[in-house]
Design a protein that fits this description.
The chain is mainly beta and 362 residues long. The chain has helices at 318-324, 347-352; strands spanning 23-28, 36-41, 58-60, 73-78, 82-89, 96-99, 103-117, 120-125, 128-132, 137-153, 192-198, 201-207, 224-227, 247-251, 254-259, 262-263, 277-278, 284-291, 305-308, 329-330, 333-339, 344-345. A hairpin with a 3-residue loop joins β4 (73-78) and β5 (82-89).
């Protein structure tokens, strides 16, 4: 059992009935998975007047129409465990692809099409997560302009533990879609090129036949998909569930969470409706805004991305408390990536970022 202590003015229950005139901060370890304390400040910890250094909160505006994201993926944040990229597919791949460096998750922010793999075909649409094990050969076929958030992982993606919630919590196993064995659709070509990524470099291998020529498969390694719209959030009218309760996938040293529409906490019980202030001492936080009205953030549009490094506070914008006061329901959808070790913004990120984002709390 934790060696729990308390002193001064505090609440009986975290995130509930915060003392008048005080502001709650969550000081936690291991993201939202470890030991934690709540501190009750006289001033919001984000009411800064200046930030000079690398810990400024950062944001990318919606960049899916940018010329340098067309039919390619632009890396935006990375460390030794994962790489986060964005891009827009306007047409079918002209080649087959195999990632020998990373497992991959593609989140389909918008669009519709088909992913043909060595295990069979997966039709995709807006809101789908597609999980692709390292070493899988595949090709994208685009029906409608497809906007993608990609997360590459040095480790495998696993499902979160359901614990006392039971095996059908978060998402049922029948919500997952697994491909049936099916040959690739391309025929009659003089050459079929597979681009293989290894150690960050591309090797091209040419075949006189379609490499998606698998007639059958069995085993526990295979691509699959699930929709963010099939995610069933943990909810409580009397407690503000921390982001760890919204975990969708777990990898070594990072998690991916899904925030989806849900009823908000109960005003009658004085529960905090907006995210509490926190500094995420052990984790960096990336939030990709997919759809809806993001009432805890000012001037953030669907397709934007924010990055809050570990060590500096963040939380709702000043107007969010008032905006959420009588709100009963949130319709927002977002994808969060929380990383145990610091993420490094790429040069492309730094060139495109909203340099004044950190001022939005002022």
């Amino acid at each position: 059992m934790e060696n729990f202590r308390a002193s001064g003015t505090y609440t009986k229950q975290a995130h509930v009935d915060i003392p008048e005139g005080l502001y709650e901060e969550e000081h936690g370890r291991e993201g939202f998975f470890g030991r934690v304390s709540q501190l009750y400040h006289e001033n919001p910890p984000v009411n800064w007047t200046n930030i000079d250094g690398d810990l400024k909160p950062k944001a990318l505006p919606t960049l899916f129409d940018h010329p340098e994201t067309q039919d390619t993926l632009q890396e935006v944040l990375k460390n030794n465990d994962c790489i986060i990229s964005i891009g827009t597919l306007t047409k079918d791949f002209s080649y087959f692809y195999r990632n020998a460096d990373f497992d991959e998750v593609y989140f389909i922010h918008a669009g519709e099409g088909r992913l043909e793999t060595s295990y069979g075909h997966l039709d995709y649409k807006t809101g789908d997560y597609i999980i692709i094990p390292r070493g899988t050969t595949y090709k994208f076929f685009v029906n409608d302009l497809t906007k993608i958030l990609q997360v590459e992982s040095a480790s495998e993606f696993e499902e979160p533990s359901r614990g006392i919630l039971g095996p059908n919590a978060l998402y049922d196993q029948t919500a997952k879609v697994v491909p049936e064995a099916q040959l690739g659709s391309d025929t009659g070509l003089s050459e079929y090129v597979v681009k293989i990524k290894r150690l960050g470099k591309i090797t091209e291998v040419s075949y006189p036949f379609n490499p998606l020529d698998v007639k059958g498969w069995k085993g526990s390694v295979y691509p699959w998909k699930i929709s963010i719209y099939d995610y069933c959030p943990i909810m409580s009218h009397r407690y503000h569930i921390p982001p760890s309760g919204h975990t969708m996938f777990v990898a070594k040293n990072f998690v991916i969470c899904s925030f989806v529409e849900r009823p908000l906490e109960d005003k009658k019980h004085k529960v905090l409706k907006v995210p509490f202030y926190h500094s995420n001492i052990d984790y960096d936080e990336v939030l990709f805004y997919h759809q809806g009205n993001f009432f805890s953030r000012d001037n953030i549009d669907a397709g934007a991305l924010t990055f809050h490094p570990q060590g500096i506070h963040h939380g709702p914008h000043p107007k969010a408390f008032e905006a959420g006061e009588d709100k009963l329901y949130t319709d927002e959808y977002a994808v969060m990536v929380d990383t145990r070790y610091p993420l490094i913004p790429t040069k492309w990120f730094s060139d495109q970022e909203n340099k004044d984002y950190w001022k939005s709390w002022m």
